[in-house]
Design goal:
By secondary structure, this protein is mainly α. 34% of the residues lie in helices and 5% in strands.
Length: 86
């Protein structure tokens, strides 16, 4: 798979320091989303997933159908859904 975009931002990702694979939803959606909510590179993370058509796991605080919707519309734009489920 061809990866589009720089990955330099990954060094600043909050999930990197946890030792837990937050890309895997089996680790728990709520903890992953809480971590994304305070991550300084969440926007870059989401853009990376969308530009690379990644739909598995949590990326920039989004997951599942929301990632698919961003990919289908051709990018994130100015609106973001997802967020921490209540």
């Amino acid at each position: 798979m061809i990866q589009h975009g720089s990955t330099d931002w990954m060094a600043e990702a909050r999930c990197l320091a946890t030792g837990i694979d937050y890309f895997d939803l089996e680790c728990g959606l709520y903890p992953a989303l809480m971590l994304c909510a305070v991550c300084p590179v969440a926007d870059e993370c989401l853009e990376y997933a969308v530009s690379n058509r990644i739909t598995d796991g949590v990326w920039g605080g989004e997951w599942g159908d929301q990632l698919i919707a961003y990919i289908e519309q051709g990018g994130v734009g100015s609106t973001r859904g997802g967020g921490v489920p209540t």
